[in-house]
Design brief:
alpha+beta, 6-stranded mixed sheet, 3-stranded antiparallel sheet, 26% strand
Length: 241
């Protein structure tokens, strides 16, 4: 873990863009060996992804005292490009674009610029959903607020934090591939549902049938299959379990 300055991860999410949204920030700060972690999060019932990304950066940076340094990681190129490049031109033009229109999300950009002006902030773009622990945790927090089911946020010593590799920003291709595969499977159309209750395996053509059988049953197993071969593979797995 770095010995000086704060380490920050941020992320934003929205369902519908505009639609229900959430934001998240993780701030790690304090002397080496005694760092503390603060998870932050919130939501808005009608917003956009970019507004949530900006809000996350604002809330995270606001936790860093004026005059202090911070290394901010975000998967939003909009935030990184805006605060490092575009803001200078916008300010020169009175927060208007070259087309003489108000800068989109001007209120948030002005807040972020004001915070950055009195802090030594360095901005780093990181890929989203590529296995970077801090980004993945922020994504989970942000989406939970967007969905109206917020996660419990951690505040305490780094030594007790559930994300043990928070300072590691290396790309994990295997984790990214696994998450993509899981997401693809969850959204795919079901061929059938396989359940195992009391040692007996059954096949269901609808989720309603499967749910009725497994709901409340102790030790029940169930899984969606995508085709005949997948169904047979699940049955073999259940037989061996």
């Amino acid at each position: 873990m770095q010995s000086s300055g704060a380490l920050i991860f941020t992320d934003g999410s929205s369902r519908g863009n505009p639609g229900p949204g959430g934001w998240a920030a993780i701030v790690v700060s304090g002397p080496s060996g005694a760092e503390a972690v603060a998870e932050l999060g919130g939501g808005d019932r009608h917003t956009t992804n970019n507004r949530m990304e900006l809000t996350a950066a604002i809330e995270g940076l606001a936790r860093v005292p004026e005059g202090s340094s911070a290394l901010v990681h975000t998967d939003s190129s909009y935030v990184v490009n805006g605060i490092t490049t575009w803001v200078a031109g916008w300010k020169k033009n009175g927060w208007r674009t070259k087309a003489k229109l108000d800068v989109l999300n001007k209120d948030l950009w002005m807040r972020l610029d004001a915070l950055a002006a009195v802090r030594r902030a360095e901005w780093r773009y990181v890929g989203g959903h590529v296995g970077i622990a801090g980004n993945e945790r922020c994504d989970a927090i942000a989406t939970s607020f967007a969905d109206g089911t917020p996660l419990r946020l951690y505040a305490g010593p780094l030594s007790g934090y559930q994300v043990k590799d928070i300072a590691d920003v290396s790309h994990d291709p295997a984790a990214a591939a696994a998450k993509k595969a899981s997401s693809s499977r969850s959204g795919a159309k079901a061929y059938s549902y396989v359940s195992k209750v009391g040692g007996v395996i059954a096949i269901h053509r609808t989720w309603a049938e499967c749910e009725k059988r497994v709901k409340g049953a102790a030790g029940a197993l169930y899984r969606k299959s995508l085709d005949r071969a997948d169904e047979e593979a699940i049955i073999r797995t259940f037989k061996s379990s």
